[in-house]
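Backbone-to-sequence.
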């Protein structure tokens, strides 16, 4: 079930392109309905199962996630969203996704759920990639995606996440003799190629930084393998250099003013900040930016193209503090975890999302999806290995110190 949940969580962003171009809002409703289907399936499984495992302990981070959801619900009482019913629906969809992931972790085997989730994210990235490859005719620069229904920025965002997950699977299977390591190597290369073809500047920068941390600074990968990865990455970049360079030259020549304002983002940030100063503590309410935020552009903006400004605008300073606390708690939890492939995946995904959050945001929730935050944090828990390692090291130091004072035998 975890595999299908995460596959559809990614793939549903292509529903408007594939099925609802005349009624894009219906795609959002279908996505929310899918969350309800998963909730119903989990409840049915819970009632029919003979035994349910309840051995997973969630990190303290889950309390902050609950506080964030609660504050979003409270802010609905003063939201400036165009429709309270629609805003409530978005809130319910966000909470249901978190509840589904929490239930799968609580009732199932954590390792199996997490591995299925990672594979689901990869599968969703592949489906998004195929949709993007079939819908590039409307972009003069050849960027993958559809400017109206599946923006190249979204293509880059999701393929970047999937590529990091493919790197994780490659690290886990690289010593295997079977076809697994070649499968995940090919998956990583393909998704990275799609990311570069999307020409999403923020996603490319975020992926390079996060993948570098994951591969080059990993304790689980040998120096020889790191050199090989660096050479392959250089070859891939050289192969894509002409396309990327042509796009950047065209972008700078045709839009010299937009380059200095980050495609108009700095102007949007300035106007959003002026509005934030009018309601700095409480903000304008959950998912209010799309209906009440600055709208002086040809294209409707549903967020401030910056996670921190969007959170402050919608949820006020209170919501901003909770958001910061979630990221800090997540990082501290992973930093205390034992070294493992999932810990390094969690840290690289954090870097990826933080860089993405500088230039993009989500109308509801965080740029780093809260279900993914909960899953990766729980999966990378210290467990019994950290205490035992610490205890064994302490015992070793004590023995070494004591040996220095042992009397010499004649």
């Amino acid at each position: 079930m975890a595999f299908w949940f995460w596959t559809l969580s990614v793939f549903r962003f292509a529903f408007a392109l594939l099925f609802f171009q005349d009624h894009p809002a219906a795609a959002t409703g279908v996505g929310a309905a899918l969350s309800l289907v998963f909730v119903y399936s989990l409840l049915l499984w819970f009632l029919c199962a003979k035994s349910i495992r309840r051995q997973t302990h969630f990190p303290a981070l889950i309390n902050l996630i609950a506080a964030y959801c609660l504050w979003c619900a409270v802010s609905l009482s003063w939201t400036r969203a165009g429709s309270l019913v629609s805003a409530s629906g978005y809130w319910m969809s966000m909470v249901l996704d978190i509840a589904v992931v929490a239930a799968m972790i609580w009732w199932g085997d954590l390792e199996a759920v997490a591995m299925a989730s990672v594979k689901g994210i990869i599968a969703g990235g592949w489906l998004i990639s195929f949709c993007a490859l079939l819908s590039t005719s409307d972009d003069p620069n050849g960027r993958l995606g559809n400017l109206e229904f599946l923006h190249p920025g979204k293509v880059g965002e999701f393929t970047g996440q999937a590529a990091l997950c493919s790197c994780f699977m490659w690290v886990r299977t690289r010593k295997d003799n079977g076809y697994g390591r070649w499968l995940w190597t090919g998956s990583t290369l393909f998704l990275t190629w799609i990311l570069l073809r999307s020409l999403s500047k923020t996603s490319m920068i975020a992926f390079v930084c996060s993948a570098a941390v994951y591969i080059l600074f990993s304790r689980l990968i040998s120096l020889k393998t790191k050199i090989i990865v660096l050479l392959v990455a250089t070859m891939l970049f050289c192969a894509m250099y002409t396309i990327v360079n042509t796009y950047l030259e065209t972008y700078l020549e045709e839009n010299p003013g937009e380059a200095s304002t980050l495609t108009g983002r700095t102007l949007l940030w300035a106007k959003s900040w002026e509005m934030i100063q009018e309601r700095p503590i409480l903000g304008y309410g959950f998912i209010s930016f799309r209906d009440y935020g600055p709208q002086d552009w040809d294209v409707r903006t549903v967020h401030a193209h910056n996670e921190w400004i969007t959170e402050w605008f919608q949820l006020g300073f209170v919501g901003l503090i909770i958001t910061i606390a979630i990221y800090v708690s997540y990082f501290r939890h992973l930093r205390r975890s034992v070294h493992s492939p999932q810990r390094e995946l969690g840290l690289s995904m954090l870097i990826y999302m933080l860089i993405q959050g500088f230039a993009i945001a989500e109308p509801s929730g965080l740029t780093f999806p809260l279900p993914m935050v909960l899953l990766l944090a729980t999966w990378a828990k210290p467990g019994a290995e950290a205490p035992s390692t610490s205890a064994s090291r302490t015992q070793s130091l004590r023995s070494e110190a004591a040996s220095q004072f042992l009397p010499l035998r004649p």
